[in-house]
């Protein structure tokens, strides 16, 4: 409907487990026409930030990934070298000798310059400890996003922010988040699509990511859809921190 | 030396992976004379709190444990039923069907009333998600301690606080900590030893746990030992938040 009116659509997601190509497949299945280029995920945002903004000189430009294959695919697409992630050698229990080899650095890759945390269904102590050791040695600390929870199976589960929280607590400082509501993501999207912010509307179902993203980005409009984590009561309450300009019960209401 | 002067000694540790009996064995190895009853660990503190203070009526008094065997041993000693912990069925990757059975509650034990997090070298997403689901259903949230880091192999590693941080971030509230510097632990120790606080000295090597514990507990003295995580510069700096009454380079200096 929006497309038939000539509107440019960009699908902006914080889910870091899926690459843009994965999302394209998902949209195909749902019967939603979308191109890979119209999808902007937090993994892609992080990869673009690392490659184009940080632009670290090789060979000291490797990323230690705490996350799933979506992050790895986007880093590959941007030509950023990485370790960790889905590598089976990190999907195991920590052993007594790991403490020694991590402490003396012999288990660490001296070319790692960045720790990037995202949603990781295979999080374990070995990954937490390895990420922490890189950070202690001065690696930059990035996160695809810091969502506390993840809607799944009609319930909520720990999100990327919960997975990364162990590293945050250990090192005592927050990661730079490249997902919503981080404006680093808005800048990256603008860099690619050159849209007019005043004539752009952010549509989303989560106040502290989607709607906050639109407000902080000074977009012309913000539309809340009540099919997700956030409830109407949340932003209709007096003194609510994030208030959308308008809301609809479901996306279908836009068709009316 | 202190013992020969008739001093009562209590060894207070935040390490939740070991039970008091484990510590007794460790002291034996080090040639330090100590009785099990003189050891007060954060796992024991948590078990005492759950059994004697919470004193929940059976059968809805089970504890879901995120932690190692030290916690289980102390809960057993206090007769507190528990699940999770070292149970191999929780030491595995989360599977797609787990999301459904956790979301609809069929994988959950209706008698769980408490989630207790400690240091867990086998932390994984399944444990995070299970703990989070119990908390969402109203379970009490306790932690043996919230130390961000753990000294090991002449380096630092993620501590119990880092392991529990994922659950904290997901649920959006802190756990009640039963370890140093929590005064719940001081009260539990006093309940057992009936000591005179004004004539008691806390000796420790970490400012934000050990020394803070003594200060908050209004003990007569606090003595920092410079063999641990905290450095002299930390408390000698102007405006330092936690300052010991005295300090020594190492415990052996007490013998002089």
UniProtKB/TrEMBL annotation, chains A, B:
Single Gene Ontology MF annotation: metal ion binding
Keywords: Hydrolase, Magnesium, Metal-binding
EC number annotated for this UniProt entry: 3.1.3.41
Chain positions recorded as Mg(2+) binding sites: 205
Record field: catalytic activity: 4-nitrophenyl phosphate + H2O = 4-nitrophenol + phosphate + H(+)
Residues engaged in binding substrate: 180
GO CC term, one of those recorded: cytoplasm
Co-factor(s): Mg(2+)
UniProt-listed InterPro entries: HAD-like_sf, HAD-SF_hydro_IIA, HAD_sf
Matching Pfam families: Hydrolase_6, Hydrolase_like
Cofactor remark: Divalent metal ions. Mg(2+) is the most effective.
First-level EC class: hydrolase
PANTHER family: 4-NITROPHENYLPHOSPHATASE-RELATED, HALOACID DEHALOGENASE-LIKE HYDROLASE DOMAIN-CONTAINING PROTEIN 2
Protein name: 4-nitrophenylphosphatase
């Amino acid at each position: 409907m929006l497309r038939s009116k000539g509107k440019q659509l960009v699908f902006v997601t914080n889910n870091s487990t899926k690459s843009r190509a994965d999302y394209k497949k998902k949209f195909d299945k749902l019967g939603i026409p979308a191109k890979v280029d119209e999808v902007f995920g937090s993994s892609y945002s992080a990869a673009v930030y690392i490659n184009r903004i940080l632009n670290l000189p090789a060979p000291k430009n490797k990323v230690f990934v705490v996350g799933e294959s979506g992050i790895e695919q986007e880093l590959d697409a941007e030509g950023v070298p990485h370790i960790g992630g889905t590598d089976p050698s990190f999907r195991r229990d920590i052993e007594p000798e790991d403490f020694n080899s991590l402490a003396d650095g012999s288990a660490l890759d001296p070319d790692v310059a960045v720790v990037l945390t995202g949603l990781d269904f295979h999080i374990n102590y070995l990954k937490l400890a390895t990420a922490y050791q890189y950070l202690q040695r001065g690696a930059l600390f990035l996160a695809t996003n810091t969502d506390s929870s993840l809607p799944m199976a009609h319930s909520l589960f720990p999100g990327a922010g919960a997975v990364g929280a162990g590293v945050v607590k250990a090192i005592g400082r927050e990661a730079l988040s490249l997902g919503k509501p981080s404006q680093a993501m808005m800048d990256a999207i603008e860099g690619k699509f050159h849209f007019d912010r005043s004539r752009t509307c952010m549509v989303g179902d989560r106040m502290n990511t989607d709607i906050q993203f639109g407000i902080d980005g000074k977009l012309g409009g913000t539309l809340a859809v009540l099919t997700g984590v956030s409830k109407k009561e949340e932003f209709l309450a007096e003194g609510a921190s994030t208030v959308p300009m308008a809301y609809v019960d479901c996306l279908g209401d836009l068709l009316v």
